[in-house]
Design brief:
Length: 91
């Protein structure tokens, strides 16, 4: 079974974008400095504001898309190396 690289990247991008977005909202609402500092390590231009929520959503999506697409591509390469000849023989 091969993974679709763009679909996997988009799914991971949406999840990571939402995580950054919700983490920033949580940081604004409850003043959780550790949550904000954690996310700011990955997105250095992140701010504790409405603009920061948008930046977290977009930046997280881009970062997640790249990471997810890379892992799907890597999975497909390993899958092809290990199971490539067996799948061709089965059908």
């Amino acid at each position: 079974m091969k993974l679709r690289v763009r679909a996997y990247g988009m799914a991971f991008g949406v999840l990571l974008g939402l995580a950054y977005c919700l983490g920033t909202i949580y940081s604004i609402a409850f003043g959780a400095g550790l949550t904000y500092q954690y996310y700011a390590n990955f997105l250095p231009f992140l701010q504790r504001s409405f603009l920061g929520v948008i930046i977290g959503l977009v930046g997280g999506f881009i970062e997640g898309f790249l990471i997810g697409a890379f892992f799907a591509w890597l999975y497909n390469k390993f899958h092809g190396m290990i199971y490539g000849s067996k799948e061709a023989a089965q059908g």
